[in-house]
Prior knowledge:
There is one protein chain. By secondary structure, the protein is α/β, with parallel strands linked by helices. The protein has 9 helices and 15 strands. Strands 10-9-8-11-6-12-15-14 form an 8-stranded mixed beta sheet. The chain has a 5-stranded mixed beta sheet with strand order 2-1-3-4-5, with helices on both faces. Helix 3 (110-117) packs parallel to helix 4 (136-143). Pathway: Cofactor biosynthesis; riboflavin biosynthesis; 5-amino-6-(D-ribitylamino)uracil from GTP: step 2/4; Cofactor biosynthesis; riboflavin biosynthesis; 5-amino-6-(D-ribitylamino)uracil from GTP: step 3/4.
Amino acid sequence: MRAKKPLPKRAAANFIRQAQRLTTAASDSRWLDAAARLASRARPESYPNPGVGCILVKDAAVVGRGWTAPGGRPHAEAAALQQAGEQAFGATAYVTLEPCAHRSRRGPACSDLLIEAGVSRVVAGVEDPDPRTAGDGLARLRQAGITADLLLSTTAETSLAGYLARARHQRPHVTMKLAISLDGCIAMANGESQWMTGPVARAHVHSRRALADAILVGGGTWRADKPKLDVRLPGLEGRDPQRVVLTRGVAPDGVKVINSPDQICQLDALYLYVEAGANIAASFLEADLVDRLELYRAPIVIGGGRSAVGDLGLESLAEAHGHWTLAERRQLGSDSFEAYSRLRQK
């Protein structure tokens, strides 16, 4: 068998450089994923600021990590730099959102902090839509001689969903929750719905409530069930979201009232969790205000029960396709959980 000819030196060098770039990109992506997981610790207490995560890496080891503090300060980068101390010099900073470029009375710009700490490289997962930064944070780092890369990250973007929904659509990110039977019912024909799912699924719902700034039900649900809409999980006491009722009527003190789905833009929230009946579900879906649809499916068949979603006014089956993609699936005790993300043009 004839021996293969070795690659020319130039071709071999190009191959090595390409392999190194691919390896670096894969490593960067993994570190950004880790920073996005850190960012989830900030939600929802970082409001009104977005929950951002930052990891400082030096010689393949983590030397600092941080996430946005309650109330929005300090930012994730400041927390990570404080933890790293002198080890931040020469490190790479992985941050889910572009480091801010604007100073405020509450603290310095994170791009300046990274420059002062002497990091060698910054990798951001999302460019900040805030016009006070919007590319200027990365530009300032480059002007200081720091390598600054924008590596568009789906994971980082997902972790910033509420902040980006505000910037792009001037409203909170909306998650709609439905607990349904195998045949798509949310209740018996007489309205009985407690309990559709088991205790594990109900605990999961409370963990989702704890991540929201506000929680919404319809007036019918409010009047019939008087739901507490709180978080009842050990260790998460006090994480109750602002209660909102969609109704033409009057709600008790401490409960926000809106009259139509499009008024959610008035809510002081980045994340809105909707526990919907059929009419509320239809009104939000028809208005295209749902970003994430979460289905808790119980292994029961009701037959003749109340449908999960009211009429959406579709004229053909083709209109229903191409709007949703599966984001998550898991088993919760005897019940199944599926989450779907809305496919949108950014």
